[in-house]
Write the structure tokens for this entry.
Amino acid sequence: MLMRVREETYWQWADAHLHSRSHDEVLSDGTTLDVQVRLSRLGATQLFLGLYAGDGRALLEEYYPARPGETMTRALVWGVDRARAMATGALPLPQSRRQRRQA
């Protein structure tokens, strides 16, 4: 697997001091999913979702600073489902990302 090229959204999310859980998955076309969930210092469930092309290029990165009412487990399941749906075309990528991918 190639190294992922992280974008600004990931670096806004990154904090090695917080406990987190993650799900990594490689699809048959080489697209990788990176979904991470954690509890903030104030106890909020936070979610990061990344889709990366086979060459490591970021296709999409999303950061949710709060998932109110969700446990870490439930937020992780939601994030994996969302990532898979966008990666397979069942859910469209946000408009700004679709334009960037075509450029």
